[in-house]
Specification:
Layout lengths: L2 E8 L2 E7 L4 E6 L15 E2 L4 H14 L16 H10 L8 E2 H7 L5 H9 L12 E2 L12 H11 L7
Parallel strand pairs: 1-4, 5-6
Antiparallel strand pairs: 1-2, 2-3
Length: 165
């Protein structure tokens, strides 16, 4: 399969976007693209901009300008059935709000908050599937593939308290 890629420059670092012809497959910070090798053969990428990549960049523009873009309908959930269920649950967390791993586990009738955390750790679509809105017990900042500094920035951004790292 041929993949298409581009780099989006965000206020908190460059974001690597990966797409097929019709769906966004991945979004991660450029300093973490090595984690994508678990999911995708990046030797098969093309730097041609597709309509999906353009839409993803527009979505990110809106997000970083403080708008509250709707969850995009062009993302591909390519995980196990459990991971896909957890990732879909992320889309129901409203912009500017948070939930804990335990709250998501309870909502999904899952006995293990750690299982929720493991599924979130494999989220290939950072920001588009907003795992940064998930906090630990007692609402502590924990576990984000992009780094806790970025997670804090994103949560502050959604509260309209723009700060720089």
């Amino acid at each position: 399969m041929t993949y298409y890629q581009t780099i989006y420059t965000a206020p908190i670092g460059e974001i690597f976007l990966l797409a097929s012809c019709h769906q966004l497959l991945g979004a991660c910070f450029c300093d973490q693209t090595d984690s994508f090798s678990r999911f995708f053969d990046l030797s098969q990428t093309n730097q041609t901009e597709t309509s999906v990549l353009v839409k993803a960049q527009w979505w990110l523009d809106a997000y970083f300008q403080g708008e509250k873009p709707e969850p995009p309908d062009y993302v591909a959930l390519r995980g196990t059935p459990f991971q896909n269920t957890v990732w879909q649950a992320l889309q129901s967390i409203p912009y500017g709000q948070t939930q804990t791993y335990g709250q998501i586990a309870k909502k999904l009738n899952c006995r293990s908050a750690q299982a929720i955390g493991a599924a979130l750790g494999r989220n290939p679509l950072l920001l588009f599937l907003p795992c940064h809105r998930v906090l630990g017990r007692n609402h502590q900042l924990t576990g984000y593939a992009g780094g806790l500094e970025r997670k804090a920035w994103l949560l502050d951004h959604e509260q309209n308290r723009l700060e720089t790292l």
